[in-house]
């Protein structure tokens, strides 16, 4: 199960992590979000020593959603050293997500 983050702990988790982070901006009513969640759980399990994967429910957390300009979900934002490095709106294949993460890990 992926860890849920919220407006209250978002900035602290992003800024203090020594590992790269993928944040999945989602909502429970979003079918593509649920499909992506399955892929992200697999990736999180396989890459747990190298990255962190978090979920942020946009309906319950308007501050982070607004700050990062989330207008469509699912949206994935990739962070390293507290900075946004990449963003993707929509679903990607597991292989394409892993490619993005490998780039992030090696930055």
Describe this structure in words.
The chain has a five-stranded mixed sheet with strand order 1-3-2-4-5, sandwiched between helices. The chain has 107 residues and is α/β, with parallel strands linked by helices. Helices cover 38% and strands 26% of the residues. A hairpin with a 2-residue loop joins strand 4 and strand 5. It has helices at residues 10-16, 31-46, 62-67, 94-105, and strands at residues 3-5, 21-26, 52-57, 75-80, 83-89. The chain has four helices and five strands.
Keywords:
alpha/beta; 5-stranded mixed beta sheet; globular
Summarize the structure.
The chain is of the alpha/beta class.
What is the distance, rounded to the nearest whole angstrom, between the alpha carbons of the first and last residues? 27 Å
User: Helix content range of the residues, please?
Assistant: 25-40%
Largest sheet: 5 strands, mixed
**Overall SS class:** alpha/beta
State which percent range the strand residues make up: 25-35%
User: Which stretches are low in confidence, meaning pLDDT under 50 for 5 or more residues running?
Assistant: none
| Spatial order of the strands forming the largest sheet | 1-3-2-4-5
Q: What best-fitting shape do the alpha-carbon axes yield?
A: globular
- Count every helix, treating DSSP H or I runs of 4 or more residues as helices: 4
Would you count the extended β strands for me? Answer: 5
Give Rg in angstroms: 12 Å
What is the string of helix and strand elements? EHEHEHEEH
Mean pLDDT: 95
């Amino acid at each position: 199960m992926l860890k849920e983050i919220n407006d209250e702990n978002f900035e602290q988790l992003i800024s203090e992590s020594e590992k790269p982070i993928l944040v999945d901006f989602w909502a429970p009513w979003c079918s593509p979000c649920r499909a992506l969640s399955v892929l992200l759980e697999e990736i999180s399990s396989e890459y747990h020593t190298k990255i962190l994967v978090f979920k942020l429910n946009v309906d319950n957390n308007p501050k982070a959603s607004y700050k990062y300009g989330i207008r469509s979900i699912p949206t994935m934002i990739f962070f390293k050293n507290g900075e946004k490095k990449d963003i993707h709106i929509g679903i990607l294949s597991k292989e394409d997500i892993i490619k993005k993460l490998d780039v992030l890990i090696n930055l």
